[in-house]
Amino acid sequence: MKLKTLINVSLLFLLGILSVNAQYERFLHKDYRGRAKEWGNFWAEKTVNVQYDSALFFKELLGIRQTAIAHKDEGLEMDTYMGELSFFLYRTKYSDQLALSVLNRTLKIAQQKRLLQEASVEKHFGVMYFHRIKNYELAFEHFLRMYELVKNVSKRTFPDKTNCLKELASAYYYFDDYPKTIELAKASIQSELEAGETAHLCRNYDLLGVCFRKQNLLDSSDYYFKMSLQVSISQRDTSWLGVSYGELGLNAFARKNYEQAEALLRRSLSMVKLKEEWQMVVKVQTALGAIALLKGKDKEAQRLLLEAKKYASSQREFELYNVVYPWLLKLYVQTGQPQLAMMYSDSADWVKDSLQRQFSARKILRAVQANQLRQHRAEMTSIETQRALKEKERNGVLLLLLVGFGLAVYVYQNQRKKHLQNQLISVQQLQIKEKELEMAKQQLQHFTQRVLEKNEFIEQLQGATILTDEQWEDFRALFEKVHGGYLRRVKEKFPTLTPAEIRFIALAKLQLSTKEMATMLGVSPVSVRSIWSRLRKKVQLPEEESLEKWLEMMGE
Fold this sequence. Notes:
Helix content: over 70%
Number of helices: 23
Order of helices and strands: HHHHHHHHHHHHHHHHHHHHHHH
Strand content: under 5%
Distance between the termini: 84 Å
Oligomer: single chain
Number of strands: 0
Shape: elongated
């Protein structure tokens, strides 16, 4: 019964795995373009959708990754890492540090697998540094590495190429580098046309038109806005259609061809309002208000310009204030309202100065960042140089050590026999000395025992002193032989010690009791204690220090 249950559970588990794999098999073994088409829906619905449940997202992502690994589909596996990266980038509640950590990990995986997604990771790095961290120099570094990876790759092979080029073009545009922006926008358009796609054409045509207008090349600007207009008509894209009419109208307004401009701008206005393209609404409505003002239609101009100001205020962008404020100033000058004219004069100047300061601050910040990056690289180069020198020094030391080791082995081999012979002699000498020492100890013990026995016998019979000078000299010779010059060292340290104190020290060293010492010295135990008391004072021995410890220290 238990076996049957186990088999059923195992089958259910295997079926579960198979069903998970089957669920994601539609992603398997497609080229980059095919995967991008399948993956795009998952990415849009779940990866960048901040409302989608995080736990469910990672469960599904892991299922796809396991399917990819099981079927050895490295491209799909890499796409799952890219999806995980996008999750942490688009959900801004996660810290920049965490996002950079995930970026680094994903970049290493892409580089190891040698896949084109490396360019996409570099793009995300650039976007992260450019828009969130505001380190423009590092952003350009990543963007340029991205560009090197994609510039010679077709969009059919790498569908993300257009987005990569777009981000780099936008970065150059942000710093008013119009030639570079134009070069990249044209490359993006060429890539789209070669792939037979049109999804990003209007945006790139529009960017080119704006760049040429910024350089006052209105004919070239018109050309690209008209190209955008054609694409938007063919795709029935009313959003870009309204923008294209508006841009062409702004060019006509710049040429002072007001009749043509007004027709184009009015055609644009209804479309961009409907699509809530508020930036374009502000520009178009301001131009229409300006035309009305130039024609002397003050009321209509006031209505259009104030409405443009309202839309500009909702967007809170200095660039839009810079569009509408100068014309409000002209309106109130023309209608004889000096206070309002003064107010908008100050506002227009302030907005213009603010924009200039912001741009200058960006340029300065980028220059500072470039300098810091150069310094950092110089420091890293210095560190690497020092490391290389240290490595050379280490290798030299190792070589010397090896040579020294070789010499040591050579010397060791030559001296081995001699060493063994000397060692044998030393062992023999040590054995002789140990025997002599043991014999001296035994003789001292025998001598001490004989003196004690003899002294006890004489004390009982006569009570006379029994330790003669001759006995002391014999005792001293044996004692010094056993204790290696102990009494001599004590005498050197304390030259004022009396013979009685020296004898007391020798007997105490033998750890004899007071009674035994009294017997050997032929004095009373009280006399022995008196000798010890005088000795303590003479050597300035503290009360708390024991006799044994002091005797041990005396022989050192």
